[in-house]
Amino acid sequence: MLDEIKALDKEYYMNTFGDRLPVAFTHGEGMKLYADNGDVYYDFLGGIAVNALGHAHPDFTKALKNQVDKLLHTSSLYYIENQAKLAKKLVESTCADKAFFCNSGAEANEGAFKLAKIYFYKKGIDRYEIISLDHSFHGRTLATVAATGQPHYQAPYKPLTPGFSQITPNDFEAVKSAITDKTAAIIVELIQGESGVHPMDVEYAKNLRKLCDDKGILLIVDEVQTGVGRTGKLFAHELYGIEPDIFTCAKALGGGVPIGALCAKAEVAAAFEPGDHGTTFGGNPLATAAGLAVFDIIEKENLVENSDKMGKLFREKLNVLKPEYPDKIVDVRGEGLLIGIEVKPEIAKAVFNGLHNRKMLTSLCKGLTVRVAPPLNITENEIDLFINALDATLKEDI
Ligand SMILES: Cc1ncc(COP(=O)(O)O)c(C=O)c1O
After folding, report:
1. Whether the predicted pLDDT of 398 surpasses 90
2. Fewer CB near the terminus (10 Å): N or C of the chain?
């Protein structure tokens, strides 16, 4: 079957993903993914930080099936019970006062940029520029590419959407000198995910918050990857003790059903008035049923606490392995269950392949860092399987 899928993909699908890993999954259960040839993999990547509940969680599946039987989509021309309830949930669980739903992380960030711009526009203040950080990742749409601090993503799409600039992370002097009288907002990932799990300095984040307050500009935190329990808190900004004016999330929010959210403080959110922003699919009954079920299960099963506890244990075990391989493991970073294992560049691909051959799914960031973002309900036994596979890979393959 895989050969047939590969042939179809090659002939009909745009070649944006190149040669994929040679596996197609048919179903999953918990941490396990079953391939069409009967191989069983452990999903330590969680669909890139999406599958917070693992695969085919029975309560999640039941909630989705219930909703599918009733109603998929109506349009936001009408009131939507699940949408209103999920907005309530997000607002009551965070520092935000209002939420808006869309379909992806990039779209949530687009919404954040629009909200920041319209906030100043409606005040009659000429501020429209957005500052972001080098090595950041904010999405694949034109504005989010302009905000993404990685030149290779930007190069083919020049001229970029104007008004975006990037600065060095954790360099407070750099941000101070980058701000102009046109700056509307600064957008940051508190833990940069795609570039290899790089947590921001706490002091820098707190200083950024204060600087934004002093200058009257908005702080946007991109929680697309870090949100919904991933870092051992519901949102990473709690770890940092700061409250953003706007934050975005997506990925884990729908547990695999596409949904993004834009969350903001009341005064900022009020800038959006009828007609200023919108969406066809965003926050439809199915997507928001998924979001409600994710929150419900996370609460019932204490998964934020589990993310914190298992994340600490995972990093402890990796840090026990690290001194055994001083020439191979460079660093172990992360918070909760967003973990980066940086290895020597010359062995990185072999480490990734060794894990894959041992049926452990991960991703390799920047050709240097093995990233894991497993389901939040992972157990110690499953962590041990990974540690053993990494140990064997480092011992036997390299
Ligand atoms: C921090 C961050 N922001 C935005 C995005 C874009 O999200 P999406 O792929 O859902 O558009 C990603 C995706 O990896 C991300 O990690």
Report:
1. no
2. N
Residue type, 41: Y
What is the CA angle 327-328-330, rounded to 5?
95
Verdict on whether the full-model pTM lies above 0.85: yes
Cα–Cα distance, 59 to 372 (Å, whole number): 25
Cis ω before 159 (30° cut-off from 0): yes
Is 137 noted as a catalytic residue in this protein?
yes
With the most atoms of ligand 1 within 8 angstroms of its CB, the residue from 225, 262, 281, 369 to mutate is 225
DSSP string, 74-140: --TTS--HHHHHHHHHHHHHSS-SEEEEESSHHHHHHHHHHHHHHHHHHHT----EEEEEBT----S
Helix H or strand E segment including 356: helix 345-357
Q: Which amino acid is at 272?
A: F
Tell me the CB-side half-sphere exposure of residue 8, using CA atoms within 13 A.
Answer: 6
What is the tens place of the pLDDT at every residue in 64-98? Answer: 999 999 999 999 999 999 999 999 999 999 999 99
Side chain identity, residue 288: T
- End-to-end CA separation in angstroms for the chain: 32
Return the number of other C-beta atoms located less than 10 Å from residue 311's C-beta.
Answer: 24
Residue 222 a catalytic site member: yes
Residue 35's Cα: distance from chain center in Å? 25
d(CA 289, CA 293): 6
Which domains, from first to last, does the chain contain? Answer: 2-57+302-397 (3.90.1150.10), 71-300 (3.40.640.10)
Q: Which residues pair with 34 in a beta bridge?
A: 27, 40
Is residue 259 a contact partner of residue 283, using CB atoms and an 8 Å limit? yes
Q: Could you give the CA distance from residue 305 to residue 160 in angstroms, rounded to a whole number?
A: 41
Mutate to test the pocket of ligand 1, among 141, 153, 194, 224 (most ligand atoms within 8 A of CB): 224
DSSP character at residue 373: -
For 189-235, what is each residue's pLDDT tens digit? 999 999 999 999 999 999 999 999 999 999 999 999 999 999 999 99
**DSSP per-residue letters across 171-209:** -HHHHHHH--TTEEEEEE-SEETTTT-EEPPHHHHHHHH
